[in-house]
Fold:
Amino acid sequence: MEARTRRLTLAMIVVTLLWTGLWSAQARSGFPAIQNEQTVWDGVYSRAQAERGRVLFDAECSRCHGVMDFVGDDYMATWEGQTLRDFYLYVSSGMPPDQHEPIEDFLAYAELVAYLLQANALPPGQTDLTANLDRLDRIRIEGMN
Ligand code: HEC
Structure:
């Protein structure tokens, strides 16, 4: 009986902790300034994803571009202060521009962006870059020059 009471009390504590945890997480998301923000330096893509992006780039983009067109001061620095959402949308809505064979798969563009990040010597991480626009919008492009 006593053990049961203790278990009940414990269960109530756990529920209370979960509840306040959820509540404060929700409260936090109301304040964008302290939201979980990242930059391109935080390992936002994976090595394997960038490799898939490289294969795609060679197949779909290299007839018009070399990857070095998109590296460094002359290119990536022009995106300084924007987010990966801006960059992703630019690439996914505009490229390839002749559109006779548009790439349908939105994940393919996350792979291409991952490859371009890698080409800019930004560090890889454990997980793939997302194709979710809200999450991409929380990854800032900075420190590119
Ligand atoms: C048929 C030729 C062609 C192909 C294929 C092509 N592009 Fe482009 N790309 C262009 C041209 C032309 C521009 C310049 C367009 C402009 O400035 O409006 C450009 C511009 C770009 C830019 C940005 C330039 C800027 O000023 O920000 C990026 C990034 C880009 N391309 C990525 C890609 C990727 C990734 C692919 C493959 C999915 C690709 N392109 C395929 C012709 C091409």
User: Anything to note?
Assistant: The CA atoms of residues 15 and 21 lie 10 Å apart. Residues 2-29 form the longest helix (28 residues). Strands lie at 38-39, 139-140. Residues 60-61, 63-65, 70, 91, 95-98, 112 surround heme C (CB under 6 Å).
